[in-house]
Amino acid sequence: MKKLLLFVVLLVAGLGQYGCSKDDKEQLDPKPEPVRLDKDTVSNWLFKRSFRITDAWRFNGNDSVDVFKQDTLLRVFANAAFLNFFISNGSGQLMFHSGTEFPNREIPGVARTFSLNIRIYLPTEMNMSWDEERGTLAIETMRTSTYFPMIVPGKKGYLDPGSFNVKMSQKQAPLAAIKPSMRFIFEDDDPKLGKVTYKITMKPLYEYYREPYQQVFASFVMFP
How far, in Å, CA of 3 to CA of 63, rounded? Predict the structure, then answer.
């Protein structure tokens, strides 16, 4: 009986030590703080820079769908419309200008080249504002545009803070192990699927050539 009591005491003591060591471990390994962006930094790096949508995915539970493969018309728009951020102090409007891709015969390495109309900017009818709670840029669709007929008013999204990787120059970008990009997240209620999440990736374009006195067209490069 005494041996049984001794065994129980030792067992309880061991469990107590295990519990303490686990608590201590949790205290030593706290969950990382969520990434928060600086309003001025985001504004400065996005201001009037051109971006191309490279992919768009819809997530519903464990299922994922390439939106561009599901709706090929969206891919056509994404190939022809290049987004431009008219942003100041964390707020502004998302505009776009037209462009086309042409074969890259000038930029060494893996790169894609485009000719953009830099004179005319058209509205997407999407406004930007700063989300203090998330510490990132928020975006909202205001109305359907004749230029962007796929826009549905009242949809809200935000720049994924952990994806903001555009703080590099044209010289730095091709040398980076992870090429510059950023991702916007939109959450929605689909009438058939229920709650879904859209993740849209954009990559910056860098102007590398413009003919003297040219005010309409310029050549840009993107590093995939």
Answer: 57
